[in-house]
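Teaching assistant's notes for section 4

Start the section by putting this record on the projector. Ask students to predict, before seeing the second block, whether DUF3175 domain-containing protein will look compact or extended. Collect guesses on the board.
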Amino acid sequence: MATETKTKKKPAAKKWSGKVTETSDALDLDKDIFESKDPSKIAASLKHSAEKSQRKKSSPYRSAMSMLTFYVNRAGKNLDASQKKILEDAKDELRKLFDRKPVHA
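Reveal the predicted structure now:
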């Protein structure tokens, strides 16, 4: 009689990246800010959060841009084209708010 070997599937691990967005130690983000349809509002919120944070490890600009880029990368294929465009536009707005040169200039 042959013994069957059953392999147990491990439960799907929760993505660490989701937790980072929700509980970032560097920035206190406004709730659902990345779902906003207004790039200026997103940029202003990130700037405000980055400037008031005492826990960030780099400059406010870098912290804000890193969080925005992280969110875009984390959302990946689940981010519809129109929202991705809004978030990319928010990067340009963030550069303006911090008096940085646009990437495409």
